[in-house]
Amino acid sequence: xxxLPLLIFTLFLQGSVGVTLWLALGDAQASxxxxxLPAAGAFVLACLGLLASALHMGYPLNALNALRHVSSSWLxxxxxxxxxxxxxxxxxxxxxxxxxxxxKPLLAVAGLVGLVDVFCMxxxxxxxxxxxxxxxxxxxxxxxxxxxxxxxxxxxxxxxRINLRAAVVIITLLVLVRLVMKPVWLGRHYSxxxxxxxxxxxxxxxxxxxxxxxxxxxVRFRCGHAVFCRGRSEGRARPxxxxxxxxxxx
Length: 250
Prior knowledge:
mainly alpha, 8 helices, about 75% helix, disordered C terminus, transmembrane
């Protein structure tokens, strides 16, 4: 359960960015009254995600130390862009509430900053010793979550016929992209396993040997995941610690 706050942060922030993009790219003639509730919901969702992220830190009070390594740490960049996204979205929501102009362009800025934050979030996972994460497939999954969760939230929160149709189309396209990426990711992972000797290059008829190779890969994946989560927790409190603690379990 220790990774649950991190999971909440990831999915809530991605869903919030998805809703923001829906509002920014939606009907140009939309009124602040119609967009206020979804925008406020996206803001609350992002706040809950950031709160969960703080609970995941080893020392939450030292979180500001992460800002010292923006030039070299994807974790620091994630924190910076998440803060900028929340600020832009909050300001846009206030403009809607006050019925002032300028909220639509600000939503577009918030959505763009949110996408940059999701990119930084994916890079944290890609730059680890976990082999199964070291692929563009990780970024595809994160961007896919933005589209799927955001579309689902909008379809449920504003169930008009147009929104429902658009949500179904977007979700279907993203699922198809995932299905295309799956064999590419598996092929890369299989090739990496052959290179390291975990997967035999010749045909193996011994089922026991095949099972042993698969078990070794599973153990390595779990080991890498555990070390990554521990390093990420400490890295949020002490920038640079995550990179020092994450080692190859192979």
